[in-house]
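Ops channel
N.P.: pipeline sanity check, posting one input/output pair.
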């Protein structure tokens, strides 16, 4: 039997969450007050009511405004801690968190301050909850290549604290091939590589992310389904996709969750995982994503088990640690008659 409660209890990893996208309106207002920053909305309710988007760009415009309230170490710590507490409550055992350094460095906030405070909260969550995590710096597509390369150099100085490079922000008009040099430099320094591709952009962008950026994991990737050869390649390479259904719904990429391609992805042997993307903006954390697709797509126990298993297999963890998490998932599945 499957219930929402059981889905919530199931051990899982989250592999696609932007820390800036976890900023709830309440914390946004608190930080604005603390830092004496004007925001364009007069109340928490008014800000939350503005979270209605027609497309990715409309969301990004509000999301970058939200970043402006993050100034001091304590702000980044509080933001990260709030997310990690929530993730722990959702039975997330391991999380790989994105942040956008350029959203902060362009406002004069030092890279080191941002990373130190996020890492501090991550270390505390490991001590307090046993929740493991990794941090991935994302390059903003809409900024210059020069700025991207500077960001990679800053990240290289923090090599021991960061696991990978990502690519996010406005997708259309910014094909992955533009960032070849940026990704080459990061991969040579030993970073794992991921990129948002095929969220709004065409399947060609997914090809470029694979062949030119040499990604280890694909963020979103929904539009790969328009290209059968690409789907076969992704399945054959066991390339993981970090799928974010409530994000896709909020950004108008699917008209309702019943129309979400997750089931087709699983049917076509794609290694899909479920994630929240920007939970403060898209109406729910990772469990809300699992529950939404379970209900709307009528998923069975095998689907749910496979999604959670994929999340551990696709994590940038040592094999031994992955095996331990998968063993915990197996025990959960057996105890509940799922296996
Ligand atoms: N930055 C934060 N969320 C994003 C998304 N879903 N796509 C692209 N860039 C983002
Ligand atoms: Zn994203």
């Amino acid at each position: 039997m499957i219930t929402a409660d059981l889905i919530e209890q199931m051990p899982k990893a989250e592999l696609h969450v932007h820390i800036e996208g976890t900023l709830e309106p309440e914390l946004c207002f608190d930080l604005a007050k603390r830092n004496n920053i004007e925001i364009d909305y007069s109340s928490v309710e008014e800000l939350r009511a503005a979270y209605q988007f027609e497309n990715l760009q409309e969301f990004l415009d509000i999301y970058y405004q939200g970043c402006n309230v993050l100034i001091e170490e304590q702000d980044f710590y509080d933001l990260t801690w709030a997310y990690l507490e929530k993730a722990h409550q959702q039975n997330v055992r391991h999380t790989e968190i994105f942040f956008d350094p350029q959203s902060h460095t362009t406002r004069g906030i030092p890279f080191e301050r941002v990373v130190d405070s996020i890492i501090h909260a991550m270390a505390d969550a490991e001590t307090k909850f046993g929740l493991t995590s990794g941090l991935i710096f994302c390059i903003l597509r809409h900024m210059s290549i020069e700025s991207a390369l500077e960001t990679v150099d800053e990240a290289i100085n923090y090599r021991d604290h960061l696991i990978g490079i990502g690519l996010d922000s406005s997708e259309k008009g910014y094909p992955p091939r533009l960032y070849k040099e940026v990704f080459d430099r990061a991969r040579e320094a030993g970073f794992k590589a991921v990129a948002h591709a095929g969220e709004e952009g065409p399947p060609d962008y997914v090809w470029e992310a694979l062949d030119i950026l040499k990604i280890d994991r694909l963020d979103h990737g929904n539009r790969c389904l328009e290209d059968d050869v690409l789907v076969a390649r992704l399945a054959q390479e066991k390339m993981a996709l970090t799928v974010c259904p409530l994000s896709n719904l909020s950004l108008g990429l699917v008209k309702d969750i019943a129309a979400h391609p997750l089931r087709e992805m699983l049917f076509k042997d794609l290694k899909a995982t479920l994630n929240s993307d920007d939970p403060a903006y898209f109406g729910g954390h990772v469990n809300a994503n699992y529950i939404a697709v379970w209900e709307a797509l009528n998923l069975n126990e095998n689907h749910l088990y496979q999604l959670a298993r994929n999340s551990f297999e696709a994590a940038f963890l040592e094999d031994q640690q992955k095996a331990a998490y998968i063993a915990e998932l197996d025990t959960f599945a057996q105890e509940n008659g799922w296996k």
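N.P.: looks fine end to end. The chain has one domain: 10-335.
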